[in-house]
């Protein structure tokens, strides 16, 4: 069902944002008869400085175009998986903007979006693997060009990831920052498994066009965007050590965390 507000919003600009890895992105598109035409896009590689850049960059872009946030009717955000800080920043900004301009919201699954880039050019199995943390990657597998999911999104160790990749066959295409961040490991893997093609780093990040294209077909509603974390945070993994340093009983700290998460 499409409400009057939703119809009105669909005639306004679409803002798409992402910050799951090192690159922070925003794209503005205006509706056309066939979809959305890009109006502006900006990208920054600013680890640990996204908070300072994102909203200021959006305001500067809107000011340059003679627009305000009231001209935005839809906001789509990459919801993960990826950097917890980047996700929280972008999603919080989206929630605040949506509340201020009555925009509808949509979440974008990061690995599926990345796969949409090369998928039309391929035929067969595509493994999308992005960096999670040291020794850990996110993995999701698709059949191309149909984009049918073969293996669901999971966080895995490097050995478990290669085991899962091999379980899907000895010939496939692999892409993503998980390759770049573990270059030596996967160089060795490729030497003994020559049926795998590793895509270059130009596919590690979504282009502005791909971000806008993916946002344009997202499912918008008035609800909040649920982040897609997949793995536990580093703080949860290291809870016992953190608790001890603060003079707390690790078991009591775990109990408190469980109580909060189950509310």
Give an overview of the whole structure.
- A five-stranded mixed sheet has the order 3-2-1-4-5, with helices on both faces.
- The chain folds into two domains: 4-110 and 206-235, Nucleotidyltransferase, domain 5 (2-Layer Sandwich), CATH 3.30.420; 118-203, ATPase, nucleotide binding domain (Nucleotidyltransferase, domain 5), CATH 3.30.420.
- A hairpin with a 3-residue loop joins strand 7 and strand 8.
- The chain is built from eleven helices and ten strands.
- It is globular.
- It has 263 residues and is an alpha/beta fold.
- 40% of the residues lie in helices and 30% in strands.
- Residues 49-139 form the Gcp-like domain.
- Pfam families: TsaD.
- This is Peptidase M22 glycoprotease.
- Keywords: Hydrolase, Protease.
Shape: globular
Secondary-structure element pattern, one letter each: HEEEHEHEHEEEHEHHEHHHH
The CATH H-level homologous superfamily of the largest domain: ATPase, nucleotide binding domain
Q: What is the level-2 CATH architecture name of the largest domain?
A: 2-Layer Sandwich
CATH topology of the largest domain: Nucleotidyltransferase, domain 5
Given this structure, which CATH class of the largest domain is correct? Alpha Beta
Helical segment count: 11
What is the strand arrangement across the widest sheet? 3-2-1-4-5
Q: Residue-averaged pLDDT, rounded?
A: 87
Our Rg estimate from Cα atoms comes to: 20 Å
Number of strands: 10
GO molecular function, one term: peptidase activity
Protein name: Peptidase M22 glycoprotease
Keywords: Hydrolase, Protease
Pfam families: TsaD (PF00814)
